[in-house]
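Ops channel
N.P.: pipeline sanity check, posting one input/output pair.
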């Protein structure tokens, strides 16, 4: 596990045996298929918009808080390290990580819940499915196709969950939800990297914002045990460094446990190729002990940060903005830009949802003002 030589495991995703792209294209002379996926994601409009989309704190609340863009970069950093340790395909892992949140609405989960409620009678709204929709359809940059024409493996990796009903409409990437199989290990470890990234950066942001305190975090074993170690070793450390040193050690403990346990699971199964991975039970995972500690951390954050009354206030505002935007656009599609008016001819509700989902936090706030405040002209 500590080897630094990069050899691709036989069960890793491999661009040479990829299921390919929906639209035939000549291969790049300089990049493998997964590198090309990653590059297309970085150049997409949806990726740039992540800079102004909320993770927990709305962008204007402070310059140091995570946004969906910095979150995605942190996920990519963790996922690449894990992929390299496990001899998985680092480029695919990075591409999945950078793309995993492309479909998020403005205002984080509050925005997604509000849009899902608006879409209740029209097929619902799910950010995960929307991320796939962005790379498959909504990005319009290439002469020959809609979307980014990414590989099957990237698309499979983006789609984390999906109802059987929706899966039936997705063709190849939907099949695993019907057949109850799993995605590549690259996708599996990226899910964990996502979780490790947000749990830890939310502690950091939560402490910085003052919504949670070090005293409260004493009830979280993962935090308290690392804090103790740091305090013992460096008794005079100032608060800011103490927090960073504790969090970086927490991340390390989680990543090492994930790599160790996943390696064990792989050794037990002895997969020969990526299809063995897809057919097997989910192989990426923490040890039982770490899974419990991780759950404890998540529960702490849910109770003390995500449901903090100050976060609730912003969420309530966000829900109102999304709901009111949906209502006015749905009642009069002529208020939307022309490209969405055109899309509304085929499916009005979905076109409105696509328009709203693509907005950044501040664009949604501005758009709401433009439509509802009488002193605004356009
Ligand atoms: Mg995420």
């Amino acid at each position: 596990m500590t080897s630094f030589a990069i050899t691709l495991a036989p069960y890793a995703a491999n661009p040479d045996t990829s299921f390919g792209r929906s639209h035939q294209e000549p291969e790049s002379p300089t990049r493998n298929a997964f590198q090309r996926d990653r590059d297309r994601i970085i150049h997409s409009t949806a990726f740039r918009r992540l800079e102004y989309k909320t993770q927990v704190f709305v962008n204007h609340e402070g310059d140091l808080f995570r946004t969906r863009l910095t979150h995605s970069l942190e996920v990519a950093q963790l996922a690449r390290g894990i992929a390299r340790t496990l001899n998985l395909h680092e480029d695919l892992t990075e591409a999945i990580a950078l793309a995993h949140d492309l479909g998020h609405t403005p205002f984080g989960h509050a925005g997604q819940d509000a849009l899902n409620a608006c879409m209740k009678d029209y097929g619902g709204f799910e950010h995960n499915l929307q991320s796939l929709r962005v790379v498959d359809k909504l990005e319009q940059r290439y002469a020959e196709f809609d979307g980014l024409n990414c590989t099957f493996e990237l698309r499979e990796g983006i789609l984390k969950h999906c109802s059987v009903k929706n899966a039936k409409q997705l063709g190849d990437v939907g099949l695993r939800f019907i057949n109850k199989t799993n995605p590549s290990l690259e996708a599996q470890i990226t899910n964990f990297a996502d979780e490790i990234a947000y749990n830890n950066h939310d502690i950091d942001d939560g402490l910085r914002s003052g919504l949670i305190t070090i005293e409260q975090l004493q009830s979280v074993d993962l935090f308290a045990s690392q804090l103790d170690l740091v305090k013992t070793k460096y008794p005079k450390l100032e608060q800011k460094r103490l927090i960073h040193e504790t969090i970086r050690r927490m991340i390390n403990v989680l990543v090492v446990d994930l790599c160790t346990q996943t390696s064990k699971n792989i050794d037990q199964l002895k997969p020969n190729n990526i299809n063995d991975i897809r057919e097997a039970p989910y192989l990426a995972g923490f040890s039982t002990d770490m899974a419990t500690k991780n759950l404890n951390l998540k529960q702490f954050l849910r109770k003390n940060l995500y449901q903090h009354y100050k976060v609730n206030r912003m969420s309530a505002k966000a829900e109102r903005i999304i709901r009111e935007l949906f209502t006015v656009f749905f009642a009069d599609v002529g208020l939307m830009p022309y490209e969405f008016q055109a899309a509304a001819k085929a499916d009005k509700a979905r076109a409105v949802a696509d328009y709203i989902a693509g907005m950044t936090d501040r664009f949604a706030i501005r758009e709401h003002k433009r439509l509802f405040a009488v002193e605004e002209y356009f």
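N.P.: looks fine end to end. Residues 315-376 form one domain.
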